[in-house]
Amino acid sequence: MELQDVMYEKREGIAKITINRPEVYNAFRAQTVQELIWSFRDAWDDNRIGAVILTGAGEKAFCTGGDQKNKGDSGYDSSGGLGGGIGLEIENLHRTIRAMPKPVIAAVNGYAIGGGHVLHVLCDLTIASETALFGQSGPKVGSYDAGLGSAYLARIVGEKKAREIWYLCEKYTAQEAKEMGLVNKIVPQDELMGTAEDWAGKIVEKSPTAIKMLKYSFNADSANIEGISQIAMASLGMFYKTDESAEGRNAFVEKRPVDFKKFRQ
Ligand SMILES: CC(C)(COP(=O)(O)OP(=O)(O)OC[C@H]1O[C@@H](n2cnc3c(N)ncnc32)[C@H](O)[C@@H]1OP(=O)(O)O)[C@@H](O)C(=O)NCCC(=O)NCCSC(=O)c1cc(O)c2ccccc2c1O
């Protein structure tokens, strides 16, 4: 596959996948998600690879979720089909990160917001730069991830904190995220990739079968949430067609305060 939105490299048993859309803070469009799936699947299929690092280009953002400028009145830019009605194959991307038998390390170099936050949550490990900022934003922009993005998040940070994260849509520092158990390690920005590579290298030295079985075992406990995700994504496909959802996207794109008052019933 010819990659436009993603950079993909493999070295010494480690695959590195970089979302490369810094002009929109590494927000993803349908093409980006397809390229991410392709890259993860290649790393999955390559027996020389033992661990994957996911990061974002530049120093501003890891990923800020769905590209709001590429979102039309019925979802993102590639509607229907495998996108399940939301126009993005995000559910397949989530499943691929979880199902691949090799640990995925998120190297969070800036904002991890919205669907970008969900991506790091689903990675096996998260290493953050001191300047990283974390948070959900769906309810501000007319969206939600009512599957793995909420229920699996609650497994990590606890029910109260997960509800706070989604209901208030605040941003949290790397230190706050670490205290919640969302981040494994914080390092200075210029040490981020070196540390991620160091951790990945330590994994690559281990028994691949042991690592695979451990990942499957950790996943098994939350596997039922994938069923909830299917229902959530299907409902989102319908929600994206509403004026309420459009108001959230329009307010962001038009850089104005959002007004959901008229949708309160
Ligand atoms: C991340 C920010 C807080 C940064 O704010 P700051 O003021 O520092 O910078 P700017 O706002 O000026 O941003 C710089 C530049 O980048 C553009 N940009 C940033 N994020 C996006 C984005 N997501 N889409 C499109 N463009 C973006 C921004 O417009 C600027 O460009 P200019 O040309 O105008 O200079 C702040 O940027 C921010 O809050 N961003 C929005 C983040 C957001 O709301 N994301 C969530 C969207 S919903 C989502 O991600 C989502 C994805 C899924 O896949 C789902 C799947 C299933 C269920 C739900 C999903 C879901 O909700």
Shape: globular
CATH class equals Alpha Beta
Number of helices: 11
Ions, cofactors and other ligands present here are: ligand LTTK3YTO
CATH architecture: Alpha-Beta Complex
Helical content class: 40-55%
Distance, first to last CA: 47 Å
For the record, what is the CATH homologous superfamily label? Answer: 2-enoyl-CoA Hydratase, Chain A, domain 1
Biggest sheet, in brief? Answer: 6 strands, mixed
Strand content: 15-25%
Tally of DSSP β-strands: 10
Alpha-beta classification: alpha/beta
The CATH topology comes to 2-enoyl-CoA Hydratase, Chain A, domain 1
Mean pLDDT: 96
Describe the structure concisely for a colleague:
By secondary structure, the protein is α/β, with parallel strands linked by helices.
Q: What would you note in describing this structure?
A:
With 265 residues, the chain is of the alpha/beta class. The protein has one domain: Alpha-Beta Complex (2-enoyl-CoA Hydratase, Chain A, domain 1). It contains eleven helices and ten strands. It has helices at 30-45, 90-99, 115-122, 138-141, 148-157, 159-168, 174-180, 192-204, 208-220, 224-239, 243-253; strands at residues 6-11, 14-19, 51-56, 61-63, 104-108, 111-113, 125-129, 133-135, 172-173, 185-187. The mean pLDDT is 96. Bound molecules: ligand LTTK3YTO. Residues 24-25, 27, 64-69, 88, 90, 111, 113-115, 137-138, 141, 143-145, 233, 236, 252 line the site of ligand LTTK3YTO. Substrate binds at residues 64-68, 76, 111-115, 143, 240, 255. InterPro entries: ClpP/crotonase-like_dom_sf, DHNA-CoA_synthase_MenB, Enoyl-CoA_hyd/isom_CS, Enoyl-CoA_hydra/iso, Enoyl-CoA_hydra_C. One of its GO terms (molecular function) is 1,4-dihydroxy-2-naphthoyl-CoA synthase activity. One of its GO terms (cellular component) is cytosol.
